[in-house]
Specification:
Structural class: alpha/beta
Shape: globular
Radius of gyration: 17 Å
Number of helices: 6
Helix content: 40-55%
Strand order of the largest sheet: 3-2-1-4-5
Number of strands: 5
Bound molecules: 4'-phosphopantetheine
Oligomer: single chain
Order of helices and strands: EHEHEHEHEHH
Largest sheet: 5 strands, parallel
Length: 171
């Protein structure tokens, strides 16, 4: 049984991620969507929220498993008998970072390969950061994420606005 993992922060999952996930799921017996902590990022959604959001949008795909974990990706792959890591490449600007991660992972475990899938043209501009940026200014994110995710992003933004201190409360 050939297993692959598509790892990422998915904060939140976008239509671009879903495009890669659906294509990769057709290539392997089992595809894990691995939600990991990227130490360089400060997430909008908690790990639990991201898991439930992704499970919801991928519920109809029997060979996709949504998982989250701490630690090194290669250690998880080894423990689960996963030999392929999938990453999407949107543009040449992604390449340096992605190549460095792929090579680092390969140095740590030469039995694990990274396969890059070229992002479909219509999603080449898209990232989770772009979704958060548009929504922070009240813009329309309906073309960037599924309906259920759009709702969750709006809910999160509203709860943040409610929690923000008013001018009279700030010292
Ligand atoms: O969606 P992202 O934030 O670009 O994904 C990056 C991610 C989470 C795949 C990467 O940060 C990662 O693999 N983190 C787990 C820790 C690890 O294994 N680091 C070694 C590779 S540099």
């Amino acid at each position: 049984m050939k297993k692959a993992i598509y790892p990422g922060s998915f904060d939140p999952i976008t239509n671009g991620h879903l495009d890669i996930i659906k294509r990769a799921a057709g290539m392997f017996d089992e595809l894990y969507v691995g939600i990991l902590i990227n130490s360089a990022k400060n997430p909008l959604f908690s790990m639990e929220e991201r898991v439930s959001m992704i499970e919801e949008v991928l519920a109809e795909y029997p060979n996709i498993k949504v998982v989250s974990f701490d630690g090194l990706l290669v250690d998880y792959c080894k423990a689960q008998n996963i030999s392929v890591i999938i990453r999407g490449l949107r543009a040449v600007t992604d390449f340096d970072y992605e190549l460095q991660i792929a090579q680092t992972n390969r140095v740590m475990d030469p039995n694990i390969d990274t396969i890059f899938l070229a992002t479909s043209l219509e999603y080449s501009y898209l990232s989770s950061s772009i979704v958060k940026e548009i929504s922070a200014y009240g813009g329309d994110i309906s073309k960037t994420v599924p309906k259920t995710i759009e709702k969750r992003v709006h809910q999160k933004r509203s709860s943040q606005i409610l929690q923000r201190p008013t001018a009279s409360e700030t010292p």
